[in-house]
């Protein structure tokens, strides 16, 4: 029997679960397809917290302004206003669902400082905020009874005759069974594209599947060149040391023991925007004032008690992967790929230009982060815009008849996957993935210029050709992870090319995108979004204006 | 550095029985067991199947048994895994225990999640909705957080001794989750929760306090301690009409009386009444024939002093609970 739902959400991270709950609340029959069990989603990794102007001394305008400024004026201000206005309600709602947020001495929600913010407006659960929220949303998902297709890999978007999205194909990774699931609306919440870079702070499942699916279906990807490099990652495996280490008062030092941030951000110091701190750290390393290719993160002055109460997990990571106990030693860190500001272009209701297709969370680009995301704004985006997208998708679904798709689409997809598994070849997925990732990190990193980007473009086009020769090392049906890895690489190769195409097109420096050959921000030409369109020959770039409501662009100083 | 791994493999669609396969990989000094397995999968054998995602012990995917111990592959450094091995002996990798293998290290998790779902795992406030957030002391949140640290990795379930004998046992992870709600000042359904947990087959009384879950948990959740607390609280709440709490009461009674365990008495008093006693008669007879049911129970010398210790402990307990200490 053909499966079908009003709203189908792809992804069960924070955005996906929030969207599904909202769609159900709006009366829709909802289901979720997710390639990992919901509690395994990458939202787990968020350590630092989630932003909201909840204190009486704070205001949503201040939160919005900080976000606009942080975005280097590339964020769309209508979306940012919504984000900041809805934040307090969203946090309170999470608390009432059961999130065990830290409290102040009066038993009310207690906040901490975070980078780029003018108030202490980051709400947190120790240093595992993401996990604590993800597990509570999972509790709500259990309560809702929403059907979840766990460990099902969504491999294709299906369209009806009129070009509107009408469902997906997905396969149960465990059994290999291919399903065709019809839907009146589909919400993509598939998370970030971190694994396009090597190393990255992102989990191994962050391969941008939904972004690539939407892109191939004709939805444009916006501002893909805006990739956030987090200033404090570990050299050995790219693991993140959360901004909360600096939020609690940690210092960044060069080999001379100097707090080098005073040169670029004398006021905000270590808590300037991430793009600013990453550039400063990379300059220290490039100019020979690093320590073994790193700078030093020092929290010793906070004392053992505070470190143990507020940063226990971070200390554990330092111990394990850098061999340094933060209580007694500084930890060597360097900038590393962390977050994708760009993504599937949506309006403030999560709608993409394709009828019936919605997106929210890290895979989407509304855009609230513009050129640079502020720490703790991304968890917020997942719940605020996840809810909006879920509700909008439910409304769209209620006004539309279910498309009757031929059931042969399932068989076609099964055949396609089978052919892929059985095709001969000499290339290996892992080797191509590594080449792609290191090319991106070396040539599309913190500092960029045209010749290097052009070279990366050539290399990626070659990798795309070589992908046709990849042979899949597991020929079975059961839990074929080699097949999954190849499909993910296929997605990532498309995405890598959009990042490079955007980076070549944007001939200015703004937010996280720093062009050594175009070192200034150029508002006259580039107060615009880049849009990448899919063609058989690779991405084609156009631009679109940025929405400005009340904050005119000025120079950013921290 | 070069490491040797021996992996217990299983491909039910291709081979009827599981087998051990050895691999040698070259990985960096700081690498974990997971890194080594991924190097194998990337470069040598794409059919090797295992779940993983975060590589930083937060997603709970990579649960496996390493040299027999249930743990996370990404939390186990190769150095640590090799520490107790002989020169040249490979690190032994097996799938998690107490769950059926789907393929290699990937086990079937449906039952695991079903048990989590069985404990009504969501907040059930009963009072009036507050205008904003619930006002609760930070200490209460810190306590609840000890269990929220759980990543549902199932290492505890893999190691649990009771589960081997009683597959219905809800198990350490689900019960730690249940504890989180009874401990949360915002939840209003303690009584219902405790009643369910103490009476459902496979509930809190099926734990044998073997400590395995406490020992293996990568997040220091200490599930056994939560279970013991749930038992204490459910008895306090009056849910004593079950074999578990009768057993524990009888246990205490016989020791306080004679200074040592009176197995016969404990067994007789643990069951509900004559009819249930009849059900257990065959077991009783077998035990008797094997000499496991002493007919005469002699108190130890100084049994009176034991009684005094019990009395003192009880008095202290009463004073503590008056002060509201928990
Ligand atoms: C180390 C780290 C720390 C961070 N710290 C913070 C912080 O402190 N504050 C903050 O605000 N942000 C933080 N972020 C960013 C934030 O965590 C993420 O942006 C956010 O959690 C993304 O949530 P999401 O719901 O969009 O996606 P995810 O949580 O990544 O979920 C994606 C979902 O999509 C599913 N999926 C993907 N592809 C498929 C497919 N093909 N088929 C089926 N399902 C699929 C997956 O199964 C998964 O359920 C951090 C990020 C990292 C990497
Ligand atoms: S202490 Fe109880 S729950 Fe924990 S492993 Fe042993 S029997 Fe299982
Ligand atoms: S209690 Fe510990 S071992 Fe058990 S599932 Fe939770 S984190 Fe894993
Ligand atoms: S990979 Fe996430 S817990 Fe090991």
The number of helical segments of chain A is: 16
Order of helices and strands of chain B: EEHEEHEEEHHHHHHHHHHHH
The share of residues in extended strands of chain A comes to 15-25%
User: How much beta of chain B, percentage-wise?
Assistant: 5-15%
Let me know the CATH homologous superfamily of the largest domain in chain B: Alpha-helical ferredoxin
- Trace the largest sheet of chain B across and list its strands: 2-1-5-3-4
Mean pLDDT over the residues of chain B:
90
| Known CATH architecture of the largest domain in chain B | Orthogonal Bundle
CATH architecture call of the largest domain in chain A:
3-Layer(bba) Sandwich
Helix content of chain B: 40-55%
- What is the CATH superfamily of the largest domain in chain A? FAD/NAD(P)-binding domain
How big is the Rg of chain A?
Answer: 22 Å
Question: Which stretches of chain A are low in confidence, meaning pLDDT under 50 for 5 or more residues running?
Answer: none
Unreliable residue runs of chain B: none
User: How many runs of DSSP E, i.e. beta strands of chain A?
Assistant: 21
User: What is the number of independent domains of chain A?
Assistant: 3
Biggest interface, residues from each chain: A-B, 60 and 58 residues
**Ligand roster:** flavin-adenine dinucleotide, iron/sulfur cluster, FE2/S2 (inorganic) cluster
Main sheet: strands, sense, barrel of chain B: 5 strands, mixed
Shape designation of chain A: globular
